[in-house]
Amino acid sequence: MFGLYPAGSNWVRHYNATASARLLQQDLVNHARFTAGIFHQPFGAERGAVLAQRDSCLVLTNSIDSDQPELVVVPDVEMQNLLWSFNSGYANQWGSRELKVLTGCDNWDGVLKHAAAQFAKVCDDVQRAVDGTLVKPAPAETASVDARPDPVLSASFSNDDDVPWLPSDYLFDSPIPGGAPCDL
Question: Superkingdom of the source (predicted)?
Answer without folding.
Answer: Bacteria
